[in-house]
Write a structure and sequence with these properties.
Layout lengths: L20 H10 L3 H5 L3 H31 L10 E6 L4 E7 L5 E8 L7 H13 L7 E8 L5 H6 L4 E5 L3 E3 L1
Parallel strand pairs: 3-4, 4-5
Antiparallel strand pairs: 1-2, 2-3, 5-6
Length: about 170
């Protein structure tokens, strides 16, 4: 359910996923390549089928873990939130979104599981997405970036109370 849904129990925007990581992996990669695996073409399956999609697959599971962790870390965000989750519609997808109870603050977050540092372009893109969101014109916007491979110097220089950086290898970047 998008985190902005006021009545999630009535929403028709839900997505269904296999929750168990092992079963999810099996259906995503093993089942569809079973014939190749039975023929012991393991290198082919890894190089041609699994490797090109693996970072994306891991990033989707990483997003869920990060949202779960953020829910337990009270006081680590710039404001106390009432709702935390993902946001999507037909034009926009935001990995993490948190709203306070009075809807005066919003946190918009991007998670990147890639081998290159996250750069200033990520901030520009997230700000563009924020501009397109309805109902957030008068809301104070905070941005959170979480990266497996760190951040470029230009993005690190933008870090302040409204732009938060978290390196999955080293922790918070200030």
């Amino acid at each position: 359910m998008p985190v902005t849904e006021k009545f999630p129990h009535k929403s028709k925007k839900g997505l269904y996923f296999i929750r168990d990581p092992f079963i999810n992996f099996w259906f995503r990669f093993v089942r569809q390549n079973l014939r190749h695996l039975e023929m012991e073409k393991i290198d082919f399956v890894w190089q041609e089928k699994l490797s090109p999609e693996f970072d994306y697959y891991v990033s989707r599971h990483c997003e869920k873990i990060i949202v779960d962790v953020l829910e337990t870390l009270t006081g680590t965000l710039p404001f106390d939130y009432e709702r935390l989750g993902r946001y999507w519609d037909k034009n926009i997808e935001i990995d993490i979104m948190a709203l306070d109870g009075e809807e005066k603050n919003v946190l918009l977050g991007e998670i990147k599981w890639q081998n290159s540092p996250m750069g200033i372009q990520a901030l520009r893109q997230l700000k563009e997405k924020a501009e397109k969101l309805k109902g957030l014109d008068d809301v104070h916007k905070h941005f959170l970036f979480i990266s497996k491979s760190g951040f470029t110097r230009s993005l690190q220089e933008m870090a302040d109370e409204s732009v938060l950086l978290f390196d999955l290898r080293k922790g918070p970047v200030y």
